[in-house]
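Hello forum,

I keep getting stuck at the same step: I have a sequence, I want structure tokens, and every attempt I make locally crashes halfway through. Rather than fight my setup again tonight, could one of you with a working pipeline run this one for me? It's a single chain of 198 residues.
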Amino acid sequence: MKRTFFFSRRFQKIMGVIILITCLSGCIPAALVVGATAGGAIIYDKRSMKTIAQDQEAGEKAGALINASPELKGSHIAIATFDHILLLVGQTPTESQRDLAYQLVSNVKNVSRVYNEITVQPPTSSWQRTHDAWITTKIKTEMLTEQGLHSTQIKVVTEDGVVYLMGVLSPRQVNLATNIARRADGVKKVVKVFENPQ
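Reply #2:
Ran it on my machine without issues. Output:
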């Protein structure tokens, strides 16, 4: 006897999102910065093609500058860019190295603002980085299935259990996104790196 299985619309959306995230995570370039990659690629993007290209170029340039610095040896630094905003996350052994990373990227072309969220501590383990990637995937999946949330304008980056949210959103949208991120298991803190829409 032939059996027919019916899945809820929400389940279908979630499965579709997971498949898309899995596929795209392997083909979206991320800057390699002292052995670290910045995650948080978004599925659909409303930025102009020019802005997307400028963000990617800025991230690659910033990564190259940091990788070329021998003074940052022993650091784990990742870079994320969105709408001309550049985010630095990761760990450095000393405060001076943290400051140096900021100085190196502060004048990168097409970057209007730099957020330096690097912490002074030993680099995270490979297990923690894998766990961070899983947290990011869970949050992005929930955001993309949340009715009323403009998830296409949000980039999610997780580093050592701290979730960073980037994008251009209204205050109401910021609150929605923040609440979703806070509910995810394993999240220590949520840091908002949002710009108000013009």
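Residues 126-194 form a domain with the Histidine-containing Protein; Chain: A; fold (CATH 3.30.1340). If your local run keeps crashing, start a new thread with the error log.
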